[in-house]
Amino acid sequence: MNSVKEELAPHVQDINRALGNKVSEQEIERELSSYLNVYRVSLDTAKRSIVKKHGGNPATLAMGVSKTLRELMPGEQSVNLLARIVSVNEKDVTVEGGSKRILYGILGDPTTTIPFTAWEPLSVPLAKGDVVRVQNAYTKEYRGQVQVNFGSRTAVAKEAPTALPEYKPGVGQPYVGKPTPVRVVDLREGGSNVAVTARILSVERREVEVDGAPKAVFSGVLADETGKTQFSAWKDFTLEADEVLRIEGAYVKSWRGIPQISFDERATITRLKPDLLPSSERLNVSPRMWIEDLADRGGAADVTVRGILIDLREGSGLVYRCPECRRVLRKGACQLHGEVKGEPDLRVKAVLDDGSGALTAVFDRELTEALLDKTLDICIASAKEAMSTEIVRDELADLLVAQPIEARGNVTSDDYGLMMIVETAKLLKVDVQAEAREMLEGLEGSA
Fold this sequence. Notes:
CATH superfamily of the largest domain: Nucleic acid-binding proteins
Number of domains: 4
Largest sheet: 5 strands, mixed, barrel
Radius of gyration: 24 Å
CATH class of the largest domain: Mainly Beta
Number of strands: 22
Number of helices: 9
CATH architecture of the largest domain: Beta Barrel
Helix content: 10-25%
Oligomer: single chain
Shape: globular
């Protein structure tokens, strides 16, 4: 036990430094142990989750932890890897009006293979078969798959070819030990060998490209009494909507911070009696959640939050988007495509606070038009007449700031905090703060 404590001590201190010594090492040690032993997540995921939970920036962690390629999620920063170059190629791309030569290819380790792109010149040449140690890479999602990117901060060094076994495609290694029972609301990014009992709400077959070859994946939504989550089955288990399953030997990945469950040939599927869980209609609802709990979980699919809109962020109101990538233009220019003729759009980026925490709520054009009771064309005409787009933002601020609201949608998470892509919203005529106090008192009374 002491040896485990000694192994974790440097990481506890690293978390403490990242949080500015605001949390005791005893509490950090307890939380780290819980993430590792109860939620079964990787050390890197545990460290980043704890720092985010206490309001810190995971990018300030000093000790990088090497991850397997299979553990990677989209949106990770400062990723450290030991991998083999399965393939590597060069190509010229156009960036900000100029030409640039980049490298792209496939990385492999004993767990899987994954695409990579090197956007900056590397200090060492790369060739097929090289084993490399990569520090400070980052990940993104491209065409539904995680991709590793080497940027200006990334360091790549060659290792001995024997430092890493070659990746051999085929059946994954079976998990060792009994799976850990987990409710949907308790799913955490990086968890492995978990067991979930849930009802399939929807399922569809689609084809994705894996290692250059088409592969069928069966994806959809499943739920238990605690919530809903998306799933991906990498083997045809003949899943059907509305059936109740016990899934053992699954693992948890995340999409933009939202935990999702995946399972493959290592999993065992047991069909259970249909009445073991509530009906699909009763499970297919949007549970109300506290922002504090969403921050601890790392996001969630289809949840409802009630709170006060306390501020509008920059970029709210009438905006212009790049016709190529849909990014919002700044001073008439796109971050990727330079000066372009922007396409008008309406949106709201507001800070929503429910007393336990805050998130950024993003409303699309349709919702923004409904809130304003004005069309995009009318807003464009108003802005031209006033010779400023700020008139639309000011009108939204007068309408929304300090208003109680109920918002429903997916909540994603990154190093900048929580963001809800709002699907539906309504202004409330209730005292949200008083309601929050009543809910808290009710919870305390039932404890």
